[in-house]
Structure formats: structure tokens, C-alpha cells
Amino acid sequence: MTKNRPTLQELNLSDDFLFAKVMENEEVCRRLLEKILDLKIKKVRFVEPQLTKDVVHDAKSVRLDIFLDDEENSVYTVEMQKYNEYNIPKRSRYYHSIVDVEQLLKKGMSYNELRGNYVIFLCLFDFFGYGRHKYSFRHRCEEESGLELKDEAYTIVLNTRGTADDVDDEMKALLQYIEESTDEVVERSGSDLLALIHSQVKEIKSSRGSEVSYMKFEELLQKEYFEGRSEGELLKLIQQVKKKCLKGKPLGQIAEELEEEAVNIRPIVEKVMEDMERSEEEILEELKGER
Predict the structure, then answer these.
(1) 119: pLDDT confidence band, cut at 50, 70 and 90?
(2) Which of 53, 123, 178, 226 is surrounded by the most beta carbons within 10 Å?
(3) Ramachandran angles phi, psi of 100, nearest 5°
(4) Is 142 in contact with 158 (CB distance < 8 Å)?
């Protein structure tokens, strides 16, 4: 476990582990989706947590944090974005495509049978810079502003740092809670939805089983990543990370520029920042000793 890693008790809903555990509750998922999309959903089905899809051979795999469907024949992908990796638009496009391709390849569906496809990002940053708490996208004609493509592909980007008065008080409280998952935020909100989410958070944090799972969660992801690379590849990666750290670049930007997941290179960044004078070989040996 890395030195700067928070304890389970210190986690907010923005942390991947806690977010995934809370969203395993289908009622929480359903009500959260209803709030975000402003529509009624009868029932959702949690398909696979932390689902990794390799739809096309040799294509870039992707880990879908929360993947659900409902009785109305729609599919939902919900992902927490704690760090700005500068790729929300293209990431959204890829997520839409892999879900659609999976339907066509595995279900034998025709194009007209493709289900409604919602990709939702919960971001701790304002990617678009307009101060909105919520950005909703669908395809429309440039020449005829009232003409919608109606392909049923929707992208919603929520921003916890919004400043505009564009959503109701409950949504503002929900977005604040993502970063500050405390009793005080819930009490001030008076929201039944936040109370439901917070009850799940407290139950998870009080569970010994959750404590054990959390201890293994990030290490397992990182171990899988490091074991899949040769020593030469890792040394080159450490060298690249070191150069970018020396320029003062943050983790999210480094991950985006190197086309890596932030969770995978975080241990390297931390080791580099501890001592910039250490060689790539020394850093690699230390990382190996922790796995």
C-alpha cells in the first residue's frame, strides 16, 4: 500500500472503491440515475461491476465502473472521474461504441434494435469550463437546429465544481457529497436520496469485509498492470514519468499524455516525487519489492 493512500474511513464517494461498493445497491443506482437523467426508471439490473471489455481483438480494453440496464431497454455506463485525464469527449465516444458493438456481436441484433445508450461521467473538475454542474449531449443537425438524430446515444457530464445556478439544490448537495461524504452534508441537504447513499457508505465503512477488500483493491489492479509489462517497458515508463514530474505536471495530465490509466502510474509518480535523484532502476526495484 502506498504511503499517501487514505484509509477506508477517509474515503469519499469520489474514490473508486467506495463508489463501486455503494453502487452495487441496485436501488441506489436506480434513484441516482433518476436524479441525473430526470426520468422515471422502474428497475435496473447491475450487469457487471468494474467490467473490462475487449470487444475487438487487439483493441484498447476499457474498464466500465458501473454497467447497468433497465426494463425499458436502455443501457447505462456510470464512471467516476477523479482526475482530469483530458479525454472525456473521446472516452465517451469509445464507451458508446463498445457497448453498441457488444450488442450487435453477442446478441445478433440489427441496427434498429440497438438499445438506448447512456454514458454518465461524475467529474471532480469542470472539463468544459462553463461553470455548469451538468452538461448533457445528444446528436443534432448543424443546419437544422431543431432536428435531432434520435440515435438514442446520450452523454451526461456532471461537475462537482460547478458555480452556475443550473440544477436544483438536491443535485448541488449530491455533487458536494461526492467530494465531502459526511454527515454534515447529508443533514444540510435534507435529501432522502443522499440519506440512502450515506447509509450505504456507513455500512461499507463499518464492514470488516470491506476493509479487507479495500486493502487489496488498488494493489490488485496495479499488480495486474505491472505483471503485463517487461522490465524494459517499465524502465522506459519510469523515465517518461520522471521527465514529466520534473516539469511539474500533475498525475492526470501525465496519464493522459502517456495514454495510461492514472491508477496504474500513480505508484511511479509517488516514488519519483519522493526522490527525484533516484535512478529508474532504483525506482523499479523498489516498486517490485512492494508487489
Answers:
(1) very high
(2) 123
(3) -65, -45
(4) no
- How far from 245 is each of 4, 238, 291, CA to CA, in Å? 17, 10, 23
Q: Report pLDDT for 46.
A: 65
Domain ranges within the chain, ordered by starting residue: 8-208, 230-289
Q: Is the whole model's pTM more than 0.90, yes or no?
A: no
CA distance 19 to 27: 14
Question: How far is Cα 82 from Cα 84, in angstroms, rounded to an integer?
Answer: 7
For cell 469542470, name the residue. 126
CA dihedral (173, 175, 178, 179) positive or negative: negative
pLDDT band at 44 (very low <50, low <70, confident <90, very high): confident
Dump the DSSP string for 233-256: HHHHHHHHHHHHHHTT--HHHHHH
- Read off the amino acid at residue 198: H
